[in-house]
Amino acid sequence: MAVVAILTIMVASATPLAAAPAWLKFTHPELGFSVRYPGDWMLAGGVVGVDFVALGPEVAGVQGMRLNVNITHDVVPAGTSVDAYHTKSEEVLKSTFSGYRLVQTARINIGTFPAVFRQYTWTRNDGIALYQLQLLTIDRARGYVVTGTTLAVSSHLKGEANALANIMLTFRPR
């Protein structure tokens, strides 16, 4: 019986696993920021006011909605702190997004840049509840917002949020 178990383990360990897709790097040609994303995600262009959009797989259990990460930037006054940028940004979210609810906030570093990482939910006008993660940081006179989106009702919310965070945390302002 022990020989069968050992043989089964040896066969199982010799079975090749499906390789994870290689990650690709995007560097913005004018702004100079970079971000990495899985090779099986696709880039989408032409979104006004958005500097980068990557579309991933469909949200678990929801047809037509894809995981996505986007990057935008704002011009900020010299000397603006990340905390001030975060506070002002959150005020806009509260006044704009129906049912906005902060899940958590953390202060982190992206390379040498201080940043705020927050997670929140809100409900679109069509009644669909979104779960979003945001990374905010400042480089010189630019405030960057990196947003990852899935649905609050996704059957794999935790795994999808982790996948989005893994992409978002590769962001570098320069």
Strand content: 35-45%
| Spatial extent as radius of gyration | 19 Å
Total domains: 1
Specify the overall morphology.
globular
Helix content: 10-25%
Uncertain spans, ≥5 residues at pLDDT below 50?
Answer: 1-16
Which assembly state applies to the chains in this document? single chain
What CATH architecture do you see? 3-Layer(aba) Sandwich
Structural class: alpha+beta
The string of secondary-structure elements, in order, is HEEEEEHEEEEH
Give the CATH class.
Alpha Beta
* Distance, first to last CA: 59 Å
- By CATH, the superfamily comes out as Mog1/PsbP, alpha/beta/alpha sandwich
Query: Can you summarize the main beta sheet?
Result: 7 strands, antiparallel
Kindly report the average pLDDT value. Answer: 90
Number of strands: 9
Strands of the largest sheet, in order across it?
3-4-5-9-8-7-6
| Number of H- or I-type helical stretches | 3
Structure commentary:
This protein has a single domain (about 20-170), classed as Mog1/PsbP, alpha/beta/alpha sandwich (Protein Transport Mog1p, Chain A, 3-Layer(aba) Sandwich). The protein has 3 helices and 9 strands. The protein has helices at about 1-15, 80-95, 155-170, and strands at about 25, 35-40, 40-45, 50-60, 65-75, 100-110, 115-125, 130-140, 140-150. A 7-stranded antiparallel β-sheet has the order 3-4-5-9-8-7-6, with helices on both faces. The protein starts with a helix and ends in a 6-residue tail after the last helix.
